[in-house]
Design brief:
Elements lengths: L1 H6 L6 E5 L12 E5 L8 H6 L33 H15 L9 E5 L2 E3 L12 H16 L4 E3 H13 L4 H8 L4 E3 L6 E5 H7 L3
Parallel strand pairs: 1-2, 3-7, 4-5
Antiparallel strand pairs: 6-7
Length: 204
């Protein structure tokens, strides 16, 4: 996502909130990293630094194996719902609820599938063994299960376009409605993008 924002002429400034320095941002003039340890609190000094931003792409989280068992939820829980689905469903519901308090807020909940980062020019992060094993399986996945793969490049470009989109709810719905896209109820825009919708809108 950061690589897309750096190269895009539509993005003039990128502010990153991170618990630690971001290697990908080094030497990039339009990127500023704000070291921020507590994501439950945002002091006025930080909010002042973020003034003028028109979009936010939230890409922060932990492994579901680190999530405590209490308080889990999903939008439509089932007896055999997997943990990651419950956690993500809870986050999606909470985000959509913010629209009632912030009428100008537009929410995009995105559900990519198997992330293919092989074409990411600024790939960074821990070199986990599982990640390496799954990476070797990517050529097979692309061949036998293309609809279950989400390339990072097209995904990042789509997320950028979502963050910058200013179309009305009705105009947006008419433009993108179809398989994999659900426009939520409410006066302001709330969208659920399944991987089929991501691939369709990205032209894959």
């Amino acid at each position: 996502m950061l690589a897309q924002c750096i190269k895009s002429s539509k993005v003039s400034r990128v502010s990153i909130l991170s618990r630690r320095p971001v290697k990908q941002a080094e030497g990039q003039d339009k990127v500023k990293v704000h070291i921020h340890k507590d994501f439950t609190s945002y002091p006025d000094s930080l909010l002042h630094e973020l003034e003028g931003a028109i979009g936010c792409i939230w890409a922060l989280g932990i492994s579901v194996s680190q999530v405590k068992p209490e308080g889990k939820a999903t939008r439509n829980p089932g007896r055999f719902t997997q943990l990651f689905a419950r956690v993500k469903g809870e986050a999606e519901t909470a985000l959509l609820a913010l629209r009632s308090e912030n009428p100008g807020l537009r929410i995009w909940n995105v559900r990519p599938a198997f992330i293919d980062e092989s074409q990411n020019p600024l790939k960074d992060g821990p070199d986990i063994m599982l990640k390496k094993v799954l990476g070797r399986a990517l050529p097979l996945f692309r061949t036998v299960w293309p609809s279950g793969v989400t390339p990072t490049g097209p995904l990042a470009e789509l997320l950028e376009n979502c963050a910058l989109d200013t179309a009305s709810k009705d105009d947006f719905k008419a433009r993108v409605q179809g398989k994999g896209v659900t426009v939520e109820e409410g006066d302001t825009l709330g969208v659920l993008l399944a991987n089929t919708g991501i691939r369709r809108l990205a032209g894959l």
